[in-house]
Amino acid sequence: MPTQHVYLDHLLLQFSGEEFESPSTWLTDHFTIINGGTHAGGLSRNQLIIFPDGTYLELLNWIKKPEDWRDRPGDFALTSLAPVSAEDNHDRIVKALDTISEGSLGVTYSQPIDGGRQTPSGDNIRWKILKALYPDAESTTPGEFHPRGRTDAPFFCHDVTDRVLRVPYNLPSAVQHPSGATGIAGVEVLVPKDKLQSYITLYTCIVGASPRLSEGGQAEFELNAPGGLDVSGVIRIRAATSENDERFLREKGIGLSSLIIRSSAGDFLFPVSDYLH
């Protein structure tokens, strides 16, 4: 069932300088891409693909990459809206995870971290991040299903300034796309078959709602979009069932494996694996 406390926010993809300056024709043929600006501290910059439901894709390029940045370039974010604050959300998630300490997969969340960027028009945008933390050192080192370290839990981005400054989904010129794309319909997280139930429990704590279960070895958490439209998307937790799935886990790691974009012409699969180098 949907929760009004947690919403889909955005998908983050890391691009090289060359990819950032000249995005693939697949992207430019399907989407309108706008300049997002430079992040506080000048370490990174982004471009945005914004949808009218308030969700978006972030194309990130590091100007100077931090030493502790986990190098798996695909990640996704959730958010909450006022009156639920970043602090409220942190306390809720950590309390829920504490109740399942044996089955939490070693995941917890940071206290809110201040972030921001300046737009090309000069607006200073501010937000607070909740980072997924993996305190068990063994769980963060490269392994069979974490070849670049762990990124199997989403982060949160909570707006401090008005959301439309960070995500100008109210601008027709920004949200009209050649493909007719209107939002994020689904995010898929691929996990090992023997850890499916553990990840369902973990995401139940993170989202704060129970999923729909299917006999096909997957669970779907339905989340509203943050733009005020009567639409929702899903986080799908899916167990690996094929040789291709197992190869993906070994090469890319547990986590984001596919993205479905909602379109006026029908939903379509975004080839996210092409951007998980």
TrEMBL record:
Membrane-spanning ranges: none
Q: Which Gene3D superfamilies match?
A: 2,3-Dihydroxybiphenyl 1,2-Dioxygenase, domain 1
Q: Where is the Glyoxalase-like domain?
A: 8-194
Superkingdom, according to UniProt?
A: Eukaryota
Supply the InterPro entries for this chain: Glyas_Bleomycin-R_OHBP_Dase, Glyoxalase-like_dom
What is the recorded name of this protein?
A: Glyoxalase-like domain-containing protein
